[in-house]
Amino acid sequence: MQGSPGSSLYNDKIGITVIRREGESIDTMLKRFKRKVQKSEILREYRSRVEYLKPSVAKRKKRHDARRRDARDALKLEKQLMKKQKRSKKFRAAGVDRVLTFDTNIITQEVKP
Question: What is the DSSP letter of 31?
Fold first, then answer.
């Protein structure tokens, strides 16, 4: 397969090389190679080019993947909320009036009723 000078296939023709470091085992070298392949997304591009997907099928797949991602994120958020509720109950039992919770996106302040 030949790519145009602007495409990623053209730029990746050189390939991924991993040079062995002094005292490095083959397993470690193989891990580095796999990581480089994964970061370069060569396999993803290859798989997308192996089989043609009709636009309607591609849209359906994209919607399906989005639903799965949303469900996973909702479950993750639910687990975080459950953990937060357990933590606040523990603090209330100890007699703490206010608890500051630092989340990656939100800072909340809970006040004992």
Answer: H
For residue 16, give every residue at least 6 positions away whose Cβ sits within 8 Å of its Cβ, in sequence order, or none: 33, 36, 37, 40, 42
Please count the residues of the chain.
113
Q: How far apart are CA 9 and CA 48, in angstroms?
A: 13
Express each pLDDT in 26-48 by its tens digit: 999 999 999 998 888 888 888 88
Please state, as a whole number, how many other Cβ atoms lie within 10 Å of the Cβ of residue 28. Answer: 13
Q: Check residue 105 and report its DSSP letter.
A: S
How many C-beta atoms surround the C-beta of residue 112 within 10 A? Answer: 11
- The pTM of this model reads 0.42
The domains of the chain are located at 1-51
Q: Can you give 50-69 as a three-state secondary structure string?
A: HCCCCHHHHHHHHHHHHHHH
The pLDDT, as a whole number, for residue 49 is 87
HSE value, Cβ hemisphere, 13 Å, CA-based, for 75: 6
Q: How far is residue 103's CA from residue 88's CA, in Å, rounded to a whole number?
A: 14
Q: How far apart are CA 92 and CA 74, in angstroms?
A: 27
